[in-house]
Amino acid sequence: MRFATAVEEKLKDYEALVKRSEVMIAAALDPRVKGVLVNVGVNVEEVMTLITNDYKAEYLQAYEAKRQAMYPRIQLMARNYLAPTATSVPSECASLRAGTTINKRRARLGDDDVQAICELQSLLAFNAKSRRRD
């Protein structure tokens, strides 16, 4: 009875080592295993794809967690500034500003001129806001 329990515990220890993705990739790449899998009727490419996809996902998650821990402020800034907006409010504001810029007297302005005027208005508004904060 002791022998059976000892063997079972040893197998459980080995199972944790063998089921690691690195070991599975090495086993699948071993030419001896490829020959056996083909004889059994297993598609080797399919097995490799499954193993490498799991491996990539596992290490991508670890990399993401490590990067977020290293640079938490940059991660928050990226989430705030690089995330797509869920509404069309910014584009509506831009078209409203452009509509107030282009009127009957300025109807002949080209695209570059309208863009320059809109950017100047945005810069002036930003400067006015920053002066109010000071």
Please give a structural write-up:
This protein has 134 residues and is mainly α. The protein folds into 2 domains: 2-79, no CATH class; 87-133. It is built from 7 helices and no strands. It has helices at 2-18, 21-29, 31-40, 44-70, 72-82, 89-101, 111-133. α2 (21-29) packs antiparallel against α4 (44-70) and α6 packs across α7 (111-133). The protein is elongated and about 95 Å long. One of its GO terms (molecular function) is protein dimerization activity. It holds the Pfam family Dimer_Tnp_hAT. InterPro entries: HATC_C_dom. It comes from Marchantia polymorpha subsp. ruderalis. This is HAT C-terminal dimerisation domain-containing protein.
| Number of E strands | 0
Q: Globular, elongated, flat, extended or rod-shaped: what is the shape?
A: elongated
Ranges where pLDDT stays below 50 over 5 or more residues in a row are: none
Percent of residues in helices comes to over 70%
- Main beta sheet: none
Q: Report how far the terminal alpha carbons are from each other.
A: 80 Å
| pLDDT averaged residue by residue | 73
Given helix and strand content, the structural type is: mainly alpha
DSSP helix count?
7
Strand content: under 5%
Please write the string of helix (H) and strand (E) elements: HHHHHHH
Radius of gyration: 31 Å
